[in-house]
Amino acid sequence: MAGGRAFGETVIGAGLVLLAGLVIFETAGAPASPLYARVGPQAFPYAVGACLLLLGLALVLRGLYGGGRDSAAEPGLAPVRARPVLWLLGGLALNVALIGEAGFILASTLLFLCVARAFGSERPLRDGLAGFALAGIAYAGFAGLLGISLGRGLIERLF
Amino acid sequence: METLGQLAHGFAVALTPLNLLWAFVGVFLGTAVGVLPGLGPALTIALLLPITFSVDATGAFILFAGIYYGAMYGGSTTSILLNTPGESATIVTALEGNRMARRGRAGPALATAAIGSFVAGTVGTLGLTFLAPLVVEFALRFGPAEYFSLMVLAFVTVSAMLGASALRGLAALLVGLFLGLIGVDLQTGQARFTFGVPELLDGIDVIVVAVGLFAVGETLFLAAHPRPAEQAPLKVSGSLWMTRDDWRRSWKAWLRGSGIGFPLGSLPAGGAEVPTFISYFVEKKLSRRPEEFGQGAIEGVAGPEAANNASAAGVLVPMLSLGLPTSATAAIMLSAFQSYGISPGPLLFQNQADLVWGLIASLYIGNAMLLVLNLPLIGLWVRILSVPAPLLYAGILVFATIGTYGISQSPVDLLLLYAMGGMGYLMRRFDFPTAPVIIGLILGPLAEQEFRRAMTISGGDLTVFLSKPLSATLLALALLALIGPMLLRLRRRA
After folding, report:
1. Residues facing B363 on adjacent strands
2. Single residue among A14, A32, A65 that ends a domain in this structure
3. For residues A87 and A124, is the Cβ–Cβ distance under 8 A?
4. Is B191 helix (H, G, I), strand (E, B) or coil?
5. Interface pTM, i.e. ipTM
6. How far is B387 from chain A (nearest CA, A)?
7. Residue A157 Cα, gap to closest chain B Cα (Å)
8. Residue of A41, A100, A118 lying closest to B411 (CB–CB)
9. How confident is the model at residue A70, as a pLDDT?
10. Rg of chain A's alpha carbons, rounded to an integer?
11. How far apart are the C-alpha atoms of B130 and A121, rounded to whole Å?
12. Per the CB < 8 Å rule, is B225 touching A147?
């Protein structure tokens, strides 16, 4: 799978070049600070941008011409399967959409269901109950004992 | 001996009922996350960082250090019984340990791992007790220039020297440094890379990055590339006791493992993996029966297991005495110090003596607890391994949500978490190391601060980093660590 390796390196390298461009562009466009400082807030971003650019280019070059030589390949990596990934991403999207209005417990129970499904579970009732119990206990533990606020949604308001 | 007096005082702090409870919770949780593949101490401590708002600093660090030590014990159980490392530092243990278990010697393999971890943990903690104050003496002479050069050295060693490729490690480090730049510049109040998003003004929380990379990224990876059905953990049949021959073959390996793990852990070279590999090869070289290696040689379990625990203690030396984290877990502990407004470093030993020595004393206590937890109670941990994967990963993502959403109840943090998860997936898929991201994120802003301080003192003269002998030496070492391996590779190729 030397080709696959080199492909990843090239794409990530290109991504880093883009990131470097963004870093340098943003830094150059930032208003100069009115406060005096011997080394201003731009020095480090420029340095980071320059290093990112060099590393990105080096990765692209090695990815294209290096044959993916010195990378530790994971043997027998299964190809990406779309279904589980879609369940997982769906669960994450539901979670972020619902957590504010419907509340942590409801959003987490749905997230739990979807992730369990993504890992091949065929027992939605068990997963739903387990997720609900876990979310409820975690909410009580974090909000009650440790004073960490997770917001108040539909179910949380009942208590 | 001033140190012994301080240590005695530390025991007085650590033996209070509440702190004993924190130590117990820490080692218990640590063993559990060590046993579960895919969960590690760095992720667990990141998820628990919010407790720094409601728990006192001493208790919190006793908890965190317990998790760190416990994970090193727990990981070996999974390696031996399941042939899947529970922890990256226990990869080597699987080589011989799983072979022993297959031949019905799971008991002695678990025993030599647990007792070896105890011996090495104690040796390592002794090393920490007596070495850290010496480093502190030395570090009191450091100015901003020396600190900056030391951080540059740490950057290079954690990213370029270890792992398959220096380029990949450095790329990961630079991404971490970039993430660390986001937010308001403390010296001038200027916002950097916030793109008009108010949530970014405070910077990106280390919880978001660590949980995104380690929990969301790993889960995505495992969902996208399902493994062949996992085999059930091997049964622990027969006696847990080691035979006289097992003891004879183990004790030297424990001590050698400790001797390899502690110094390598305390150098800014990071990670507990390398010492375990070195220990394995040393044991194989020294063994009178090298042909047994690969078939279940007990030395191959005893040595590496000792090495990883000793290196965990070693990592705490630069962490506490210099404020220099050399592993992802240590970097997250450093950010916990920051959230208490405490800066680790030489002054920590003077200003926070209760905290430091209480923490060190609790490491001795935690080690003794771990020995009990991991031998007589081994059955409990084996049962944890039978949690079905769907429930395990679903639970991990629920906890990832808590850790992130609990910071500020903002969906923006959750979106950032998912973005980090996507990055973590790509890094895992294409074999980029993730620890340098965390270290860059935490240490980057500190390095910038020291750099600007040094520049202010020198009046903008860049040569200050080379004209101070100590600083120049550190930078020379960094350069050597960067180009040395490349030169070796070129020579091998030629």
Report:
1. none
2. A65
3. no
4. strand
5. 0.90
6. 12
7. 16
8. A100
9. 42
10. 24
11. 52
12. no
What single string gives the DSSP state of each residue in B318-347? HHHHH----SHHHHHHHHHHHHTT---STT
Cross-chain residue pair A71–B391, CB shorter than 8 Å? no
Question: Domain segments of chain B: what residues?
Answer: 2-227+238-493
Across the range A53-77, mean pLDDT stands at 74
Whole-angstrom distance, CA of residue A40 vs CA of residue A30: 12
Per-residue pLDDT band at A3 (split at 50, 70, 90): very low
Are B177 and A48 an interchain contact pair (Cβ–Cβ within 8 Å)? yes
- Separation of alpha carbons B320 and B269, rounded Å: 16
- The pLDDT score that the predictor gives to residue B163 is 65
Q: List pLDDT tens digits, range A133-147.
A: 999 998 888 877 777
Residue A71 lies in a domain: no
Provide mean pLDDT across the span A102-117: 94
Section A30-43 average pLDDT: 69
**pLDDT score, position A32:** 65
pLDDT of B38 > 60? The answer is: yes
Is-contact B173 B328, C-beta < 8 A? no
Print the domain residue range for A88. 82-158
- Distance of alpha carbon A97 from alpha carbon B391, whole angstroms: 22
Report residue A72's pLDDT band, with 50, 70 and 90 as the boundaries: very low
Structure tokens that stand for B50 in this block: 């919010």
Contacts of A104 in chain B (CB under 8 A): 401-402, 405
Residue B183, beta-bridge partner list: B192
Who has greater pLDDT, B385 or A76?
Answer: B385
In chain B, the residue whose alpha carbon lies closest to the alpha carbon of A4 is: B430
Q: To the nearest whole angstrom, how far is the Cα of B130 from the nearest Cα of chain A?
A: 35
Residues of chain A found within 8 Å of residue B393, distances taken between Cβ atoms:
115-116, 118-119
Cα–Cα distance, B381 to B79 (Å, whole number): 13
**For residue A74, is it within any domain?**
no
A54 falls within a domain: yes
Which residues from chain A sit within 8 angstroms of residue B415, using beta carbons?
A: 96
User: Does residue B39 surpass a pLDDT of 60?
Assistant: yes
Token look-up 């990141």 returns B46
Contact A150 B225 (CB under 8 A): no
Tracing tokens 């990876």 back to the chain, one arrives at: B221
Count of residues for chain B?
494
Using the predicted structure, report yes or no on whether residue B269 has a pLDDT greater than 80.
no
Q: Are residues A7 and A39 in the same domain?
A: yes
Strands B191-192 and B183-184: antiparallel
Token representation of residue B442:
């935490």
> How close, in Å, is residue A154 to chain B by CA atoms?
16
Contacts of B460 in chain A (CB under 8 A): 38-39
What residues in B contact A92, CB-CB < 8 Å? 216, 397, 418, 421
| DSSP result, B201-240 | TT---HHHHHHIIIIIHHHHHHHHSPPS-PPPPPP--S--
Question: Cα dihedral angle (B302, B305, B306, B309), rounded to 10 degrees?
Answer: -170
CB B91, CB B301: distance < 8 Å: no
Share of chain A above pLDDT 90, in %: 50
Chain B environment of A19 (Cβ under 8 Å): 175, 178
Domains of chain A: total: 2
Please report whether residue A72 resides in a domain. no
